[in-house]
Amino acid sequence: MTRLNELRLISRVAQMYHMEGRRQAEIAQHLRLSQATVSRMLKRAEAEDIVRTSVIPPAGTYSELEGALREKYDLPEAIVVECTEDRDGAIMARIGEAAAHLLEVTLAPGEIIGVSSWSQTIFKMVENIHPQKSAQAKYVVQTLGGMGDPSVQTHATQLTTRLARLTGAEPKLLAVQGVTSSREAKLLMQADPFVRETIDLFGSITLAIVGIGAVEPSELLARSGNIFSSRELSDLAEAGAVGDISLRFFDKNGKPVKTPLDDRVIGLPLEDLERVDRVIALAGGSKKTDAIAGALRVGVIDMLVTDKFTAQRLIN
């Protein structure tokens, strides 16, 4: 899949240069690549017969679906990956592979990466990343509290620390409950100096990698203990919520669904995410289609990495 991931990005660079008339410097800035890399990719596009008199997307890439997503949702960038099965496990694996390649080629030295630590798809991305030797990040910041059921809480810690190790960064953990019992409990936990140190980095994040959840929590999140009660989730649905990013909920039009539950979440708020320079969302699957559509309308996502089945549903 590594070659296919390379060809997909090469194809997009060629499309922007030859069909959209963008300059190499503009492409480099837009995709977070060096201008030298853009130049090499344009030459590679000719060698691979991707560029002749027009851009020929390689088999297994979906430039038309990506273009339709960009147009429909006013989305800066989209990556649509090949997947042979419309099944959650297969979809997460393919999205994770593509996202790993994207991070490897676009990571800038000194980046401060914020990562939503309860996403199985993001965990798949981390599993596929190769150790970075040149462009190394400064910090990897956990953006949602990770304590919970001891049998699964290590997932969040492992994801954050492993991504930090692979990118040469220092991990900044948020070792508190993602959902507290009360607003008072949240304020007490946030007063801890180590917790405060991590939260204070939220405003410095340059790259946020997020998952998108439906109102009904994933199996992993449900087992973690970082969820609301069935009654509270029902109330959210009645209020119009269709999904969440780090337990911050929104409706089908992308408007935040504000409830007192927000006061119990220890994590990155949507308004802070809006100020991040680059936000990459990894999500797919039939159960998440409405949630992804709503998330794209929130206006904070700069790039969506999804599968061909989900992309088609989002367009339709």
Automatic annotation (TrEMBL):
<dbReference type="InterPro" id="IPR007324">
    <property type="entry name" value="Sugar-bd_dom_put"/>
</dbReference>
<protein>
    <submittedName>
        <fullName>DNA-binding transcriptional regulator</fullName>
    </submittedName>
</protein>
<dbReference type="InterPro" id="IPR037171">
    <property type="entry name" value="NagB/RpiA_transferase-like"/>
</dbReference>
<dbReference type="InterPro" id="IPR009057">
    <property type="entry name" value="Homeodomain-like_sf"/>
</dbReference>
<keyword id="KW-0805">Transcription regulation</keyword>
<dbReference type="GO" id="GO:0003677">
    <property type="term" value="F:DNA binding"/>
</dbReference>
<dbReference type="InterPro" id="IPR051054">
    <property type="entry name" value="SorC_transcr_regulators"/>
</dbReference>
<keyword id="KW-0804">Transcription</keyword>
<comment type="similarity">
    <text>Belongs to the SorC transcriptional regulatory family.</text>
</comment>
<keyword id="KW-0238">DNA-binding</keyword>
<dbReference type="Pfam" id="PF04198">
    <property type="entry name" value="Sugar-bind"/>
</dbReference>
<feature type="domain" description="Sugar-binding">
    <location>
        <begin position="63"/>
        <end position="316"/>
    </location>
</feature>
<dbReference type="GO" id="GO:0030246">
    <property type="term" value="F:carbohydrate binding"/>
</dbReference>
